[in-house]
Amino acid sequence: MRMSVIGCGYLGAVHAAAMAELGHDVVGVDVDEAKIALLSAGKAPFFEPGLPEILASALASGRLRFTTDMAAVDDASVHFIAVGTPQTKDSYAADLTYVDAAVDALLPYIGEGDLVVGKSTVPVGTAARLAAVVAPTGASLAWNPEFLREGYAVQDTISPDRLVYGIADPSSVDVLDEVYATALAAGAPRIVTDFATAELVKVAANAFLATKISFINAMAEIAEVTGADVTQLADAIGHDTRIGRRFLGAGVGFGGGCLPKDIRAFTARAEELGRGESVAFLKEVDAINLRRRQRVADLAVDALGGSVNGRKIAVLGVTFKPHSDDVRDSPALDVAVRLKGLGAEVVVTDPEGIDNARLRHPQLIYTSVAEEALRAADLVVLVTEWPQFTSLDPREVGELVRHRRVIDGRNALDPTAWKDAGFTYAGLGRS
Ligand code: UDX
């Protein structure tokens, strides 16, 4: 199939490369010339395991190209909208400027038999509005949300755990079935539904995941005042298959480009629809999540006897999760900034996130060499559970630091091993 992907950010670049890898003929379009130049040269503009490999093979096959010229979409019959929907500056609502601009830019090139497929995460009601914009051209519109996780984006795109088609025109189903023939043949479940349900599936899934994380973090708060251990609690309730252990990792909380923004945009949209009370709990989910960041800062102050001022703190991790270079709404970066704000000498180390973090917070000290951050540190704070950090030998770390104190902001270290190496250990919801 000939297809275009409008927007070559995280979602679009991976989608374009994966579709070409699956045998489709794909053109990726973006207004950012630097990004297009990188992608055309086979270089991923962000860190994503597996992406450079499929970019290289898809470009070499001749089935994939990137351009800033919208006219290049003329030959394609399926057009994916994969532009960003960031949080607006002055409210929690999603900013649809890029989605609207992408659809407008497509209009001259689409007609009867073409299908525009929205993949961006949008407030419920957007697809119906855009379908009316597209209709005069004779083309149809479908909403096909994307559930990819950073760090597993290639795998999640090639082998999705479900496909959701939000459609109004029944012929869209056959087109999408052809797009996703490989995943369907491998048994991926397919849900064909209306626009509103498809849009809501995405935000509901992210709201549920965020709620699950904040639930266990709320339990961590209770564990902290009772002496209970939240990781054992999570293990015990997680054995109940109705609950499940995944996403019960208590720690410094969720961040990234999706979960925080999506629950806020969902709240804003529900309020617009007069149903704010239905998702009012999401404000609490957000508040619990943000409190955990302050909790790490408070633990640091306690660990250093009441003040971090002038003390060297090694912050292990700056990305919102491991296997990513993304620092958007990163709890780890937020903790580092809070500690710096309290007067600490903060040295941040991370395998992939330093360049992005430095752009946002140049006031912090960064090093890609963990030993440099650890050397003569008064306190070690782990906030992103990169394997490089969780596998550190506490005895070797003990030789580097000035004082053996560690805060485990992800409950990812073995408390016994660190205590045996002479460290005072504090986790989140366990000690
Ligand atoms: C998420 C959804 O998982 C994905 O389906 C959607 O398409 C986009 O948003 P992503 O943002 O890549 O994906 O990250 P995810 O792996 O879901 O983690 C989100 C955040 O939650 C991270 O900051 C992570 O550290 C945190 N988290 C996750 C926890 O704090 N505890 C957990 O148990 C799990």
Automatic annotation (TrEMBL):
Gene3D superfamilies: Cytochrome c1, transmembrane anchor, C-terminal, NAD(P)-binding Rossmann-like Domain. One of its GO terms (biological process) is UDP-glucuronate biosynthetic process. It is an enzyme of class 1 (oxidoreductase). Keywords: NAD, Oxidoreductase. GO terms for molecular function: NAD binding; UDP-glucose 6-dehydrogenase activity. Belongs to the UDP-glucose/GDP-mannose dehydrogenase family. Pathway: Nucleotide-sugar biosynthesis; UDP-alpha-D-glucuronate biosynthesis; UDP-alpha-D-glucuronate from UDP-alpha-D-glucose: step 1/1. This is UDP-glucose 6-dehydrogenase. NAD(+) binds at residues 30, 35, 85, 121, 150, 261, 328. SUPFAM superfamilies: 6-phosphogluconate dehydrogenase C-terminal domain-like, NAD(P)-binding Rossmann-fold domains, UDP-glucose/GDP-mannose dehydrogenase C-terminal domain. The active site is at residue 258. Residues 314-415 form the UDP-glucose/GDP-mannose dehydrogenase C-terminal domain. It comes from the Bacteria.
